[in-house]
Amino acid sequence: MARINLLPWRAERRKQREREFYMQLGVAFAAALVVLIGWSYWMGARIDNQGERNTYLQGEIQQLDNRIAKIKDLEKVRAGLLQRKQIIEQLQANRSQMVHLFDELVKTIPASARLGSMKQSGDSMSLDGVAQSNSSVAEYMRNIEASPWMGHADLRKTENTHDDSRMPYSFGLDVKLNTPSADAPVSSATVATPPVGTGAAPAVPAPLAQAATAVTGAPPAAGTAHNATAPAAAATPATSAAAPAGAKQ
Fold this sequence. Notes:
The protein has five helices and four strands, in the order ααββαββαα. It is an alpha+beta fold. Strand 1 (113-121) and strand 2 form a beta hairpin.
């Protein structure tokens, strides 16, 4: 026998589907809400972690800035120490320069010139003085350039003051200073000294003695007279030896 359902089953089925839809919608909403809350917590954790990393990096950067400042201060101290070291080494290397320099000034200056002032600035020196003539200044410049402790000499000025002194010419020189090596040749302006213990005075060249006599009017030194009369004294024994030979013939 066939059964006929006369109840409104279609409406019940529709209501059941609506309930299922709303349940599924609520589950989806709850799941979305859970996912959203979890994502917000995760993003907050990442933001906090990044903030901690930024704080750590800022602290490290501050420490590096402090170290860089200390390094700069140490570099300044190091530069000052190196500069002092270079100055000390330069003074150590040139401690005997002034001794040799004054020695060379005495050896190179001719008898017809005289220094009035000198000034050293680094590796250059300015000399001012007077001389009898321009040839005396030229001779002085040649002697300076031949010295191992002094180099090229530039003539700054030379003028005739037209006064009544024996040295009317005023001159100024700019000289470059040198530091000779250990195997440097001996200067041609060096004056030979007599052997120790002989007591003999150094011989004065005849042209220089004649020039000094012409300027000062004083007689030449004993060494010069001895050198000038030496050829005549040497010729006297030869003449005496020749006389008996002629008499015998």
